[in-house]
Amino acid sequence: MGKIEIVEGDITREKVDVIVNAANSSLLGGGGVDGAIHRAAGPELLAECRDLRSSTLPDGLPPGDAIATGAYEIKKVKWIVHTVGPNRHAGQTDPQDLARCFSNSLHLARSLSARSIAIPAIGAGVYGWDHETVADLAIRAALAEQRERGGIDRIRFVLFSKDAAAIWSQAKLTHLGR
């Protein structure tokens, strides 16, 4: 079985095959992780996302779905997988939609032959999901991915604070029975 890691840090500085963007449905950038990834990747990412919006995603990316783009100026990364978490403040309260963000991102990364991935706390923060719920769903998805033949070797959850990393580390220990 591969490694599941919990770290505090900046996802744009990870050296992995894929980073996951906690995007908004427009795919055109925003705040938090989304804004940081767009700034780090440069204007080519915005151009590719605009092309996606004008062709295959005219209504935006629905919550739980995932789509891949190039990583452009983020040189240590091959792809960016964008996913949209459900917004609890907007009445999107089904945890299965949030779980799909993680499972769909992992499946898409595997289809790209990724061996390593960095994932943020999708849905935590401005979308109103608590870290305990997000961590539980994310760790479950990671463990399921690693049980798959040819699954991703290294899954890193990159959190923005020590407190968040501590919650996620506890969730990992709980799922691993330690």
UniProtKB/TrEMBL annotation:
<dbReference type="InterPro" id="IPR043472">
    <property type="entry name" value="Macro_dom-like"/>
</dbReference>
<dbReference type="Pfam" id="PF01661">
    <property type="entry name" value="Macro"/>
</dbReference>
<protein>
    <submittedName>
        <fullName>O-acetyl-ADP-ribose deacetylase</fullName>
    </submittedName>
</protein>
<feature type="domain" description="Macro">
    <location>
        <begin position="1"/>
        <end position="176"/>
    </location>
</feature>
<dbReference type="InterPro" id="IPR002589">
    <property type="entry name" value="Macro_dom"/>
</dbReference>
